[in-house]
Recover the amino acids of this structure.
């Protein structure tokens, strides 16, 4: 191990055998944390080339269970987002893409820090369970076109251990380490093709479009080496997606979007990611055909029906989909008002996400219990004109004492300027 660390420290390319020794030794416990920490720091400074990144991804992927989806008919296309605030695209896209005929085998995560998670959002629907056996998962997708479950604990143990160590050694932010971490999990989940939504902006891992493009190219190259088609969409996370942040509130917004009444930015991102999924899944020939198909599924209500079906199969109360007002809402609400007149020039997604966690919509510790009705309904977003005293956001919580701190955070998130800000596009680039 010492020789391997020294080689990487000196900027040399490592072999497949080297990476196998490191990863297997780390997972089995025979190589101590301090040597892996030094190794990660050497990678952080010297980097990995594309070949090394693909080799590392492959070995990480094989460190645990590999999900075999071959019993599911059709091309399985997965979608991954690098994490955002108010991002409920899976709840909209999953049903739409399934209704279009591409099987959706989705293994999702829970909220992490200031970002939300699909599983928590789904569990705000009464009775809904994301637990199922692998057989049930496959059977449901073959029968209904979609199932959404949690990630198997035995999936890519190398990433769980490595990520925990990166988190405390200042080595999270390396392109090859991020790409191998995400891709090893996506590939272990068994998808044939993957659409990745790389978020750029405050609170996202990638701060600039250039960084996001580099990450996109590394992921596509990993996919190519493993015979998987990967398309990366680079999208802005300079403000939350849509107006709702918080689990039950986001489910309501997803339902509105499937009815064709959703926020413009959320709808646009769903059409963008979804049409790439339909092309990769070979049910549409072109991107434009994909967009038209998705729009028709919204207009006909087939997307919403698929969400109903998904909820019913997973034990959820479908009456909450038919009457979204019966989804959880916290007992207390307060308004945040504009302190001056002008234009909203900034709405920092990170601070909105933190305020919503504070209200009870996320976990402050691993064992926190989520308040499914808590969160924020933004009333104004970037570019909107406001007068002093206008409502900027409605905050919801079951814990009255949380409003003071949450309002403070949300006040920091909003910047009001005298002149209208320049319009920023939502979709910055697509790399394939
Ligand atoms: N998400 C992951 O799963 N891994 C990373 O390294 C960064 C974001």
């Amino acid at each position: 191990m010492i020789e391997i660390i020294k080689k990487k420290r000196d900027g040399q390319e490592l072999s497949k055998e080297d990476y196998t020794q490191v990863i297997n030794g780390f997972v089995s416990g025979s190589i101590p944390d301090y040597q892996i920490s030094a190794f990660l720091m050497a990678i952080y400074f010297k980097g990995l080339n594309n070949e090394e990144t693909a080799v590392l991804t492959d070995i990480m992927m094989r460190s645990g269970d590999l999900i075999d989806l071959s019993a599911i008919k059709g091309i399985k296309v997965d979608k991954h987002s690098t994490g955002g605030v108010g991002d409920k695209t899976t709840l909209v896209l999953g049903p739409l893409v399934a209704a279009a005929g591409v099987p959706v085998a989705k293994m999702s995560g829970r909220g992490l820090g200031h970002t939300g998670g699909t599983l928590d959002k789904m569990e705000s629907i009464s009775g809904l369970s994301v637990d199922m056996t692998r057989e049930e998962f496959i059977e449901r997708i073959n029968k209904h076109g979609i199932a959404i479950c949690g990630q198997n604990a035995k999936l890519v143990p190398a990433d769980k251990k490595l990520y925990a160590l990166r988190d405390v050694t200042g080595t999270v932010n390396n392109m090859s380490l991020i790409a191998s971490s995400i891709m090893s999990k996506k590939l272990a989940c068994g998808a044939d093709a993957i659409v990745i939504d790389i978020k750029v902006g405050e609170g996202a891992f990638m701060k600039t479009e250039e960084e996001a493009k580099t990450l996109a190219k590394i992921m596509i190259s990993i996919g190519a080496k493993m015979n998987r088609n990967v398309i990366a969409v680079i999208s802005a996370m300079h403000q939350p997606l849509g107006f709702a942040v918080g689990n039950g509130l986001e489910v309501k917004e997803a339902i509105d979007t499937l009815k064709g009444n959703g926020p413009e930015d959320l709808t646009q991102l769903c059409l963008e990611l979804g049409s790439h999924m339909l092309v990769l899944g070979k049910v549409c020939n072109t991107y434009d055909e994909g967009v038209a198909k998705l729009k028709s599924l919204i207009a006909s209500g087939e997307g919403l029906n698929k969400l109903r079906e998904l909820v019913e199969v997973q034990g959820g109360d479908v009456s909450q989909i038919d009457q979204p007002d019966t989804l959880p809402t916290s007992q207390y609400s307060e308004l945040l008002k504009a302190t001056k007149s002008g234009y909203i020039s900034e709405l920092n997604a990170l601070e909105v996400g933190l305020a919503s966690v504070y209200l009870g919509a996320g976990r402050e510790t691993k064992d926190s219990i989520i308040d499914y009705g808590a969160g924020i309904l933004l009333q104004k977003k970037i570019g909107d004109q406001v007068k002093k005293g206008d409502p900027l956001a409605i905050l919801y919580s079951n814990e009255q004492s949380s409003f003071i701190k949450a309002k403070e955070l949300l006040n920091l998130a909003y910047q009001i300027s005298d002149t209208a800000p320049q319009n920023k596009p939502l979709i910055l680039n697509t790399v394939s």
Summary: The chain is about 45% helix and 15% strand.
